[in-house]
Structures are given as C-alpha cells and as structure tokens.
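[scheduler] slot 2 assigned
[scheduler] job type: sequence-to-structure, two independent chains
[scheduler] chain ordering preserved from manifest
[runner] begin chain α
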Amino acid sequence: MKNFNTQYLTVLMMAVMVYAASLHSKDGTLKEIREEALELNKTLNQTDLLLMVTKIERYQNDSVDKFLCLAEKALKRNRHRESFKKTDKLIRQLFQYNQKHTNSCVFLNTNASFTLQALLDQIEIC
C-alpha cells in the first residue's frame, strides 16, 4: 500500500508540473508581442513603416488588453496588402493574447490613420 501511495503521488506531481509548464504567463506573451514589434521596427524598410493603419487612441484609463485588441484589428484590416504580410507573426501573437485576455472589443470605424511605425512604437511601450 505504501508503494502504491508513493507511485500515485509521483504521477500526480508529474502531471501538475507538466500542466504548469504548459501555461503561458500573461507577461511572457506581452514580452513576445513587444519583442516582435521592436523587431519589425528594426527590420521593415522606411516605406513599409510609413504605411497607414487605422489610428487607435490610447487614453490613460484604457487597459493594455483593450489597446492590444484594437491593434490586432487595425493590423488585420490591412492584411490583404502585400506590405503587411510581414506583420503576420505579430497579428498571430496579438490574436493569441486577445483570446485569453479580452472578452470583446469594438473597433471604431474611423477614417483617422497613422503610420505603422507609430502603432509599433505604441505596442512596444504598452
């Protein structure tokens, strides 16, 4: 009986460790998003960085989650353009983050826009 209890506890501990290792922390995902935005800022040519995306106003009381949800929608809106193919990895990371942390966000239909570089800069500092 003692041997069974030891084996049971060992298997249980291994299952808990595997589960804990599979969880992604919020900070880890945010870090990856920031790193990808920084990398795009460094590697995209000046023409790509000057492409226009829908402007997202970020106010003091806005949460990071809301901003990142809107950023994903702004990038997806331009996904069909060839120049935006380079942002696919960032869009995927934002999508994964938003699935876990955002219930819903409403994208405002606006004609205001700013550069891709400005959006990437905001993502880096959020």
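[runner] end chain α
[runner] begin chain β
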Amino acid sequence: MATSSREQEARDYLEKHRIMELLNYLTSNLLFFQPDKPREYLVSLLERLRLAKITGVAFPFLMDQSNIVAMFEMMDSSNKGTISFVQYKEALNTLGLCTADEVLKDDGHGITLDKFKQEVYKRTKEI
C-alpha cells in the first residue's frame, strides 16, 4: 500500500508542476531541430524558460510560423486546406502541447491552418 501511495504522490507532483508537459515540449523541440549539441540546447531552452518566468516576458516560441505551416501542409497532403481532428490532436501531442489522454472537443469540422496556428501558439504560451 505504501508503494501505491508514493506512486500517487509522485504522479500528483508531476501533474501539479506540469513536468510531463515540459519534458514532452523539450523532447519535441529536440527532435524537431536536432541540434548538434543536444545537452547544451536543452540547457539553453531551460535557461530561456527560467528567464521568461523571472522577467514575466513571454517565452520565445521556438517553432516559427514557417515550421507550423510546413507541419500543417505535411498533414494536408490533398491540399484541402484542412486537417482531420485526429491529425490535429496527434500534432499537438507530437509537439508536446497536449497529453494523449487530454479530451479535446471535436466540433465535426476540419481544422484550418489558422485554427491550428492559434492553438499551437496558445498552448505554447501556457507552457
């Protein structure tokens, strides 16, 4: 019983401090940019996060608009101008901007590039 209590405490701690979201975000950026010196890159990201928190200045979003557009276009291979809700959720998950078990509302409409960009920027700012 003590083990399950400790496990629950650990899960609660990670959730409270959003550690898994942070790790997903860092990992996604690491895989997306694939820097030559990954440890230094991660330290730099964490330092920028720390400075942003101290100064209250928004954390610089590491994926610029062209990266987001390129990601959207890869998913919209038929050039319909929309992606499916499943693709949308998977993209957010891949970027570390949502968890696999997070419930997102599917309104039945395709996700446009503008909606995709808005959501990526909003969720990045929340992190």
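[runner] end chain β
[qc] chain β: The chain has a mean pLDDT of 82.
[scheduler] slot 2 released
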